[in-house]
Amino acid sequence: MAGEGRPPTVRRVVMFPFPSPSHITPMLQLAGLLRARSLEVTVLHADFNAPDPAGHPEFTFVSIRENLPREVVDNADMVEQMIGFNAACEAPFQAALEALLLQQEEPSICAVVVDGQWYAMLGAAKRAGVPALAMRADGAATFLSMLATPRLRVDGYLPVKGERLDEPVPDLDPLRVRDLIRVDVSDEATVLRFITLVPDAMRASSSGVIVNTFDAIEGPELAKIRAELSRPAFAVGPLHLLSPERVEHGLHAPDRGCLAWLDAHPPRSVLYLSLGSVARIDRAVFEEMARGLAGGGVPFLWVLRPGLLRGSGEQAPPSLEELDDAVGRNGKVVTWAPQREVLAHPSIGGFWTHCGWNSMMETICEGVPVLAQPCFADQTVSARYVTHRWGVGFDVGKVIERENIANAIRNLMAGEDVEARRERAQSLKMEANRCAAEGGSASLAVDSLVEYLLSL
């Protein structure tokens, strides 16, 4: 029986993930760590993109039974959609939380942990009388930039003006104005509204913040967050190293045959390319990427998921052979890859990535250098840290153009500074492993988080 032989449970924590695989996975990883420390876990969830309870019999799953308007579900503007999700789920979440309080038996609820995108749920939890913490699915640097948004608006850095794009942002080194959060398909006023709503809710209604990061890569940023909020910030990452689970998040089943293909290549010879589960690119960008890969002259493994090309619906992108036989001859294409295993494979010498935070944590933890192509949101912040704070890679350039890409690939895989870059990447890997080890800073942070939850 689950939990047999464990010490008596003292309290229960309620968790509310945002309905996206890249957000649900780290939330459930944290839930497992809390349960291993004798907290019972109830997962409140939306019916939209609901997690599978069968995969976690140790948790109690409860739907908030929201009613999402069709215009919210179908909205192609992701920022408007997130605002719509908050508006539609706020009342059902509060009602579900209050119902848990009314019907609860021992152990009693000590706190709720909500995803950082659920800004409205912080106020809802406060009204229900339950202390709430926000769990960020991005890095500390991104969240710090969100906290700075009111100041940046007053100082004239936001809304962004073209002539200021390359100006450094005060107190957010190494960020430039162009590195601040952006979503090109969204109205800038809507983006700024969302970015403002998040820190406003944190200041008004949160009891703290949880970040999937570690001091060796974002120590100064974590310290600034604690000072800015005057409340705890727990660096509990890298969560995928602390968690016993090896679940890969993604919308498609991974093609494990690519691992055998990697086996046939020498160490550090293959470039792995994936732009994650959400980003969309134009056909012209796809063609430049393909030609740049051909010009880079190295073997590559490319994740081309259905829906990657803008306007294609869920159709698969064109094959490389459709562009040119020479492009496809040196590479392998899959719909989805088992990313952690790919990054851990000895043949991988670089990762061309959108710089989503889960991918950042995974590549840092495997010591793989990065070619950065941020697409939207927090990815621009992470890409700047790759190149100018952590020193483990290059960006593909302001313009996605085949010759720039080919040169960047050659520099990443075999440039004159390749060994120094690999050494730096390996150093960060060692730091990540130290943090995740028993008695390391991440494990201690989870212990401190549990103590804090029990004190609320």
Structure overview:
This protein has 456 residues and is an alpha/beta fold. It has 2 domains: 12-247 and 438-455, Glycogen Phosphorylase B (Rossmann fold), CATH 3.40.50.2000; 257-433, Glycogen Phosphorylase B (Rossmann fold, 3-Layer(aba) Sandwich), CATH 3.40.50. Helices cover 46% and strands 13% of the residues. It has helices spanning 21-36, 70-73, 78-103, 119-128, 140-147, 149-154, 188-205, 215-229, 239-242, 257-263, 283-296, 320-323, 325-328, 339-344, 357-366, 379-388, 402-414, 418-436, 441-455; strands at residues 12-16, 40-45, 60-63, 109-115, 132-136, 209-211, 233-235, 270-274, 300-303, 331-334, 348-353, 370-372, 393-395. The strands form 2 sheets. The protein has a 7-stranded parallel beta sheet with strand order 3-2-1-4-5-6-7, sandwiched between helices. It has a 6-stranded parallel beta sheet with strand order 10-9-8-11-12-13, sandwiched between helices. Helix 3 packs parallel to helix 4, helix 4 runs parallel beside helix 7 (188-205) and helix 11 (283-296) packs across helix 17. The model is unreliable at 1-7 (pLDDT under 50). InterPro entries: UDP_glucos_trans. Keywords: Transferase. One of its GO terms (molecular function) is quercetin 3-O-glucosyltransferase activity.
